[in-house]
Design brief:
The chain is α/β, with parallel strands linked by helices. The protein has two domains: about 5-30 and about 285-389, Aspartate Aminotransferase, domain 1 (Alpha-Beta Complex); about 45-285, Type I PLP-dependent aspartate aminotransferase-like (Major domain) (Aspartate Aminotransferase, domain 2), CATH 3.40.640. It contains 14 helices and 13 strands. The chain has helices at about 5-10, 15-25, 45-55, 70-85, 100-110, 125-135, 155-160, 180-195, 225, 255-265, 270-285, 285-310, 335-345, 370-389, and strands at about 35, 95, 115-120, 135-140, 165-170, 200, 230-235, 245-250, 315, 325, 350, 350, 360-365. The strands form three sheets. It has a seven-stranded mixed β-sheet with strand order 2-8-7-6-5-3-4, with helices on both faces. The protein has a four-stranded antiparallel β-sheet with strand order 9-10-13-12. The protein has a two-stranded parallel sheet with strand order 1-11. It is globular. About 50% of the residues are buried. The structure holds pyridoxal-5'-phosphate. Pyridoxal-5'-phosphate binds next to helix 5.
Length: about 400
C-alpha cells in the first residue's frame, strides 16, 4: 500500500512507546519502576466524575455544537478572564479533545507550506510533528543549561525570518519543568510584537508550579501581545483528567471560527457528558488541584535530592510540571542507549531526551508514588555508578 508522503514525515511518539513497553513488562510480573508517565497518577476528583455521571443520567448523550457546550465555553472564558487576565468571551474559546488536539487544529488552521514555526528545544515532542503534518517547517532553537533551558529574546529574534508565522511557547515546560519569570516573558513578548509574529502559549501546566515560581499568561502583558496570542490548555494535568480528552484553545474569533469549522468536519463535538465534568472542574472547589500539587511538590523534592546525590548526572532546576530533565552526557551513552539499558538491567523506565530534541538528557516523571521513587532512585544510582566505573 502506498501511504501518503506526510506519514513518512512524522515520527511515532516515543513517550507512548516506552510507557507501553514498561506496562507490558509489569503485566509480565516484572517489578518495574516507571518514570515515563506524562500523566498524574491520581484518580479524577470525585465531584468531577459525579458531574459527568449526572449528565450521562440526564441524557446528555447527543451531538452538541462542534465548538463545545455553551456553558463550558463560558466557564473557560470566565476562568481565562479572572485567573489569567485575558479578555476572552465564550466566542473566543473552543473546546477540543485535549491540549494536543487544540494545537493540532491550530496548526491546520494557521500553517501553510513554507511557513516557519519556531520551537525552543527541549520541546514537547508533538510540536514539530504537528507543524510538519500541517505542511509547515519547524525551526528548532537549541537552549541549554547556561540559560536554564530558556530561549532568550536574542535567540528568538535571530530565528525569525520573513517566513516565520508562529512561536510555540510552553511555560511551565515539558520536559524541563522550567518556568519563565514575568520579566523573561515580557522580554519575549516585546520581540513578538516588534517582529509581528504570532505566539501560541501552551499553558497546560500552569497550576503545577513550586516555590516562588509564578505563572503569567504572555497575552496578559498588553493589547499588542494579546492580539498576537493564542492560548492552548486543557484539563488533563491540573485535574488528572488525561483520559477524558478535554482541552481548549482561545484566541481571535476569526481563528476560533476556523478551528470550529475544522472540528465540524473531523471530530465534531467533544464527548457531551464529559464536558459537564469539565464545567464542574472549573466551577467547583479548586482544593483538589492544590492537594495534587502538594503531593507533586513533596515527590519533586525527594527525587531532586536523590538525583543530586548521584555523581555524574545533573539536573536543571525545575519549578513546574512533574518532570526532572537530567543531563547524562558524562555517561557517554546516547539517551536511547541509556534508557534501553536502564530498563533492561534495572527495570526503570525513563524517556530518552532525543524525543525532546536533547540527546544528552533523559526525562524522569515524578507523577508516581513515593515508594517507587525511592526504589527507582536506588536503581538509577546503581546504574549510573556501573556506567562510570
Ligand atoms: C500533556 C500535554 C499537553 C496536552 O495533553 P492533552 O492530554 O492532549 O490535553 C499539551 N502540551 C504539553 C506540553 C503536555 O505535556
Amino acid at each position: 500500500m502506498k501511504l501518503a508522503a506526510r506519514v513518512g514525515e512524522v515520527t511515532p511518539s516515543l513517550t507512548l512507546a516506552i510507557a507501553a513497553k514498561a506496562k507490558a513488562m509489569k503485566l509480565d510480573g516484572i517489578d518495574v519502576c516507571s518514570f515515563s508517565a506524562g500523566e498524574p497518577d491520581f484518580d479524577t476528583p470525585a465531584h468531577i466524575k459525579a458531574a459527568a455521571q449526572k449528565a450521562l443520567d440526564e441524557g446528555k448523550t447527543k451531538y452538541g455544537p462542534a465548538a463545545g457546550e455553551p456553558k463550558l465555553r463560558q466557564a473557560i472564558a470566565r476562568k481565562l478572564q479572572n485567573e489569567n487576565h485575558l479578555d476572552y468571551n465564550a466566542e473566543n474559546v473552543i473546546v477540543t479533545n485535549g491540549g494536543k488536539h487544540s494545537l493540532f487544529n491550530l496548526m491546520l488552521a494557521l500553517i501553510e507550506p513554507g511557513d516557519e514555526v519556531i520551537i525552543p528545544a527541549p520541546y514537547w515532542l508533538s510540536y514539530p510533528e504537528m507543524v510538519k503534518l500541517a505542511g509547515g517547517k519547524p525551526v528548532i532553537v537549541q537552549t541549554d543549561a547556561a540559560t536554564e533551558y530558556k530561549i532568550t529574546p536574542a535567540q528568538l529574534r535571530s530565528a525569525i525570518t520573513a517566513n516565520t508565522k508562529l512561536f510555540v511557547f510552553n511555560s511551565p515546560c515539558n520536559p524541563t519543568g522550567v518556568v519563565y519569570t514575568p520579566t523573561e516573558i515580557q522580554a519575549l513578548a516585546e520581540v513578538i510584537v516588534e517582529q509581528d509574529i504570532l505566539v501560541v502559549s501552551d499553558e497546560i501546566y500552569e497550576k503545577i508550579i513550586y516555590d516562588d515560581a509564578k505563572h503569567i499568561s504572555i497575552g496578559s502583558l498588553g493589547k499588542e501581545i494579546f492580539a498576537r496570542t493564542i492560548v492552548s490548555s486543557g484539563f488533563a494535568k491540573a485535574y488528572s483528567m488525561t483520559g477524558w480528552r478535554l482541552g481548549y484553545l482561545a484566541g481571535a474569533v476569526e481563528l476560533i471560527k476556523a478551528v470550529s469549522t475544522i472540528q465540524g468536519h473531523s471530530t465534531s463535538n467533544v464527548c457531551t457528558f464529559a464536558q459537564y465534568g469539565a464545567i464542574a472542574a472549573f466551577e467547583d472547589s479548586q482544593d483538589c488541584v492544590e492537594q495534587m500539587r502538594l503531593a507533586f511538590a513533596e515527590r519533586r523534592q525527594v527525587m531532586l535530592e536523590r538525583i543530586r546525590a548521584i555523581p555524574g548526572i545533573s539536573c536543571a532546576p525545575p519549578n513546574g510540571a512533574f518532570y526532572l530533565f537530567v543531563n547524562i552526557s558524562k555517561t557517554g551513552l546516547s539517551s536511547l542507549e541509556f534508557c534501553d539499558s536502564l530498563l533492561e538491567t534495572q527495570q526503570v523506565a525513563a524517556v530518552p531526551g532525543i524525543a525532546f530534541g536533547a540527546d544528552d538528557h533523559i526525562r524522569l516523571s515524578y507523577a508516581t508514588d513515593m515508594a517507587s521513587i525511592e526504589k527507582g532512585m536506588d536503581r538509577l544510582h546503581k546504574f549510573v555508578q556501573s556506567q562510570l566505573s
